[in-house]
Structure formats: C-alpha cells, structure tokens
Amino acid sequence: MTDSLFARILDRRDDLIALTQDLIRVPTRNPPGENYRDICALIEARLAPRGFACTLVRAEGAPGDSDRYPRWNLVARIEGARPGACVHFNGHTDVVTVGEGWTRDPFGAELDGDRIYGRGTCDMKGGIAAAILAVEAFVDEHPEFAGAIEISATADEESGGYGGVAHLAREGWFAPDRVQHVIIPEPLGKDSICLGHRGGWWAEIETHGRIAHGSMPFLGDCAVRHMGAVLQRFEEDLFPALAARRTDMPVIPDGARASTLNINAIHGGEPERAAGDTGLPAHNVPDRCRIQIDRRFLIEERVEDVEAEIVTLLEDLKARRPRFDYTLREVNRVLPSMTPEDAPVVREVRAAIREALGQEAGFVASPGSYDQKHIDRIGTLRNCIAYGPGRLELAHVPDEWVGVTDMLDSARVMARTLERLLLP
C-alpha cells in the first residue's frame, strides 16, 4: 500500500518541479502584498477539477488590506467516502522582499540540478507544492479514504499573518470541530517536526530632544545622543542578561535558545534624501530619534516581564540622565506556542518519517513565530505542527533555493501521514 503511494509521488517529479516553478513565478512580495488573488487562482485552477471545493476568502479590514492590495486566501476541501477526521495543510503564499546579492532571477524559478532557485522557494512555496502533490497522490491511491482533507493558501505570514490565518481562525475555519490535524509545511527540515516557536514583542522607543541650530548644539537637546545612551545600556546590561537565559524548548539554531533582541531600524535627525536629491543638509540638532526593537522571548518568560524590563531600563535612564525623556509604543505581541510531543499529529508524522525515510524524527522549535500561533491562540486547536522541505537558514537570503529531492521526500512523509490518519 505505502510502496504504491510512494511510487505515485516519485513518478510525479516533473509535475512537482513545474508546480513549484509556477508558484514562484507569481511574485507575491509582502509588503505590499502583491498578486494574492493570482496565486490563489493558480492553486484553485489545479485543485477544483480534481474535486476540491474551493473558497476564496478576503480578509477585509485586516492590517494591510486595501482595494489596491486585497488580502486574498484560498481554502480547498475534498471529502472522503465516509466520516472521519479532517487533516489541514496550510501554507503562506507571501514572500519577503528580494534584497541585494542575487546571481539568479528571483522570480525565474531556475532549475539547476536538484535545486530550484527563487524568492519563496524554500519559504515556503516548495512546501505548498509538496503538500499539494502528497494530497493528490493520496486521493488517487485511496479514493475511499475517511474524513476530509483541506489545503489552504494564505496571505501575510511574513508580516504577522493577520490578513491570512488569523482572519480564517476568527471566522472559524480552524475550529476543532471541523479541523482536527494541521500541518504547516514550513522549511524546518524533512527529518524534523517543529512543535512551536518563541514569543515576540515588538515596540518603538522614541527619545525626545529640543531643536536648535547645529552650530550651537548647547542651545538644544540632541535626541540622538539620548538614544545613544539607550543603546549603551542595551549593550552593557540588557544583551548580556538576555544571552544568559536559556530555554528547554528545542529551538534551532542553538543561538536562538537564548532570549534575543534585534534593533530593526533607527531614525533620527534629517530625513533620508530621495534618490537624485543633490541638496545639502540643514543644520539642526535632532529633536526626535526612534528605534524599532524586536524582542524574542522564551516560553519560560512572561510577556509582561519582557515589557517591564524595557520600561525599567528607560525609567532608570530618565532618573539618572539630565533632560532624558522618551515614549514607548508597543507594536505587536505574540505568545510562544508549543504542541505536546504526544499530540496525535506529532505521533503520526513521527511514525511516517520513520516509515518513509528510515530514520527517527527530531523535535525542533522555530526561532521566529509562524502561523501556528493563530491556529493555537485564536482557533484553539493545539494539534498543529510545522513539517516541510527546505532549510531554515535559506529563508529570506539571496539565491534562495529548495531541493527537489527534499520536496519529494517530504511529500512521501505527508502522504504516509494521511494514510495513518484517514485510512481504517
């Protein structure tokens, strides 16, 4: 039974390559959120003729949704021959900006040996293609299966998922009475099961000063210097304290098993010049300086304590540093998520890896959050994991790629999981 299913998948190697290339060639950059309707239409055109009921869902009112950049999502469902559980494969269709340093066309989907290159190949259109192939092969092999299978293609994971999975979860698409198992084919490795992710707290800190002529800075109050004091305290106190904290979660890579903080951006003083502007700068003391911080915290930490730690540091500076004043604004918060190792979907995927690949699966957790957070926190469905092809360190980099063999192997694991969950 399994050998025949595996043969079906391996025979469709060329189809898998072509599907992955088609997905890559739809540039779904986020921001701003381009071409979501087009990529949903591409997937619908493939699945609808095969008997899937396809529903397009726009996340109207979600952050980023607009008439110019609507947040479109697709949910495709196929029913089995008799009642049973529903297994849902979820993949995000958006990709990050291209950036510099590419040696290949980011949206050309070039095949070179066993690799397909392009933005989103690894994260995570290769995973979407592998899941689609696995489901199609399973349905062809076992048309009498019990239950139902869903495939969703969702927007905005790269910017938090609020126009995608979060919206679907609020609308009940992941309610435990209609979906029982969720697999998200994120690139965490074909021999690993990702149980969850760290938490995140994002904020902006702005220091205040007083504008004055740049030739007489003593008449003003430089907000950039005040921000320098904040950064100095980060370096001397906060970063060492975070590095000393370790989690029991199996987060990869090892450096992410500590608490971390990244300074995403800094802005102060004169605005950036537009391209081609040859004017000279004005001479002013900056009266505003702002940084954006990205604080990733451990399941052992409370988000309230994460925020309080920053506030305490800033308040101490305010007490000690003359004329120091600041504004702190929270941008977003995400709590950690962790599926138990004995959850049904974990047990079955672990067994499927053993049977399909001949090796024992490792447990990992992601350093950054992904859409499991919404399925868990909003949808209240804990039986959710990430499993898919690709290597995490290739996500978001120049010359991103996914291996064809890895996609085929992951498809075999996903198809075998369906056998274990939906066959009598």
Structural write-up:
Its EC number is 3.5.1.18. This protein has two domains: 2-197 and 336-422, Zn peptidases (Aminopeptidase); 199-269 and 283-334, Alpha-Beta Plaits (2-Layer Sandwich). It is 33% helix and 24% strand. The chain is built from ten helices and 16 strands. Helix 2 (13-24) packs across helix 4 and helix 4 (121-141) crosses helix 10.
Summarize the structure.
This protein is an alpha/beta fold. It has two domains: 2-197 and 336-422, Zn peptidases (Aminopeptidase), CATH 3.40.630.10; 199-269 and 283-334, 2-Layer Sandwich (Alpha-Beta Plaits), CATH 3.30.70.360. 33% of the residues lie in helices and 24% in strands.
| CATH-assigned fold name of the largest domain | Aminopeptidase
How many helices? The count is: 10
The fraction of residues assigned to DSSP E strands is: 15-25%
**H/E element sequence:** HHHEEEEEHEHEEEHEEHEEHEHEEH
CATH top level assignment of the largest domain: Alpha Beta
What is the CATH architecture term of the largest domain? 3-Layer(aba) Sandwich
N-end to C-end Cα span: 13 Å
Mean pLDDT: 97
Domain Peptidase M20 dimerisation: 196-319
Organism: Roseivivax isoporae LMG 25204
Protein name: Probable succinyl-diaminopimelate desuccinylase
Family: Belongs to the peptidase M20A family.
Secondary structure topology:
Blueprint: H1 2-11, H2 13-24, H3 36-47, E1 53-58, E2 72-79, E3 82-92, E4 111-112, E5 115-117, H4 121-141, E6 146-154, H5 165-170, E7 181-184, E8 192-197, E9 199-208, H6 223-243, E10 260-268, E11 288-297, H7 303-320, E12 326-334, E13 337-338, H8 344-357, E14 362-366, H9 372-377, E15 384-386, E16 401-403, H10 404-422
Domain Peptidase M20 dimerisation: 196-319
Pfam families: M20_dimer, Peptidase_M20
GO molecular function: metal ion binding; succinyl-diaminopimelate desuccinylase activity
